[in-house]
Amino acid sequence: MAAIQAENAASASATENAPTSSISVMVNDCSGKMGHAVAEAAVAAGLNLVPLAITGPKMGNSRVACGGVAVQIIGAEERDSVFDRVLNEYPNVIVVDYTLPAAVNSNAEYYISRGVPFVMGTTGGDRTKLIDTVKKAGTYAVIAPQMGKQVVAFQAAMDIMAQNFPGAFAGYTLKVTESHQSSKVDTSGTAKAIVEYFQKLGVKFNVDEIERVRDPSEQVRRMHVPEDYLGGHAFHTYKLLSPDGTVAFEFQHNVMGRSIYAQGTVDAVLFLAKKVREGADQKLYNMIDVLKEGSMR
Ligand SMILES: NC(=O)C1=CN([C@@H]2O[C@H](COP(=O)(O)OP(=O)(O)OC[C@H]3O[C@@H](n4cnc5c(N)ncnc54)[C@H](O)[C@@H]3O)[C@@H](O)[C@H]2O)C=CC1
Ligand SMILES: O=C(O)C1=N[C@H](C(=O)O)C[C@H](O)C1
Question: Ranges for the Dihydrodipicolinate reductase C-terminal domain (predicted)?
Answer without folding.
Answer: 151-291
